[in-house]
Automatic annotation (TrEMBL), chains A, B:
Region: Disordered, residue numbers: 1-29
Official protein name in the record: CASP-like protein
Localisation: Cell membrane
Domain of life: Eukaryota
Keywords: Cell membrane, Membrane, Transmembrane, Transmembrane helix
GO cellular component terms, A-Z: plasma membrane
Membrane topology: Multi-pass membrane protein
Protein's UniProt keywords contain Translocase: no
SUBUNIT field: Homodimer and heterodimers.
Regions of compositional bias (Basic and acidic residues) in chain numbering: 17-29
Entries under PANTHER family matching the protein: CASP-LIKE PROTEIN 2A1 (PTHR33573:SF46), CASP-LIKE PROTEIN 4A4 (PTHR33573)
TM region(s), chain numbering: 36-55, 75-96, 108-133, 156-176
Amino acid sequence: MDNTDTKIHGGGGETSLRQEDESDSDNKSGMRSAEAILRLLPVILCVAALVLMLKDSETNEYASLSYSKLGAFRYLVHANGICAGYSLVAAIIAAMPRPITMSQAWTFFFFDQVLTYLILGAGAVATQVLYLADKGDTTITWSSACDSFGGFCHKATASVVITFIAVLCYALISIISSYKLFTKYDAPLSTHL
Amino acid sequence: MDNTDTKIHGGGGETSLRQEDESDSDNKSGMRSAEAILRLLPVILCVAALVLMLKDSETNEYASLSYSKLGAFRYLVHANGICAGYSLVAAIIAAMPRPITMSQAWTFFFFDQVLTYLILGAGAVATQVLYLADKGDTTITWSSACDSFGGFCHKATASVVITFIAVLCYALISIISSYKLFTKYDAPLSTHL
């Protein structure tokens, strides 16, 4: 299981051992910083999407519309809030200069997967509501709302686009955490070359 | 990288080598069958969800409603069709008695991830439309459609529930394919214990 250790101890004399340890340490800190930055990015994106949506309300002569009137947008706000909070905690833990344990790797893997699905679902339903608000659906007598609430729809669209950039970050993060988890295991018998 | 090979050649005499090869071969075929079955399950689920939705139409004295009138349900039908087709091909390839190559592992990994996101998104938007069709939204004057089209809503709900069971299968499949891919790699330097 511990391939890197085997390799380091298997390499030449004490000098080469020290050199490998140094480059190992450099690599470690480089990878840690890269991961911490990638985990901080969704914090900014989710907070931006959340604030945009929270401040999104419009009143015209007929009615007043705000994000809280639509279930999908409320879900988007909650999902963005949860993701921002989790990403911040995860970034701090990932930045700590200590080796990751097996249970930490599993925890990261689990939550990264769940939150990727959560934020993707939130982005998808919000996109669907925006589409209906823009086009309407005559068969079931849903009229277009964006004709009367143009500003509201624009802000909501911006929030959804930012959410989807956060989804991309999360997809990447969940690949990284599954890489970090599963490289700790041996190859299954059915896949060895 | 090739941990299993090292282990087999490292073990005792020729007899133990043959025994290990036999149990290796049994394990291989067991894992292959399990994976093939897990990949066949979404074929059945997706086809069931697809057929239910395709046959879902209702006419009353006011209007006629079918899945094709709602963008989200059309997307659900397409997503289910794509997933059923992919899962069938993937199950056949996974069942073949030969070792998986690196490029195959990457291909499975990539498509499993993408299709998990695709079918999750389809399930999410369809759920959102069902929610709106059931409750309506008075602020933007969208009336409830399920009062007049109860049968349509019930069938659509069944289709969406089946889709979400397929999503669970896909989430599991994408974990398995990332396990099979990443166990082929060495542990990154920053995570070794």
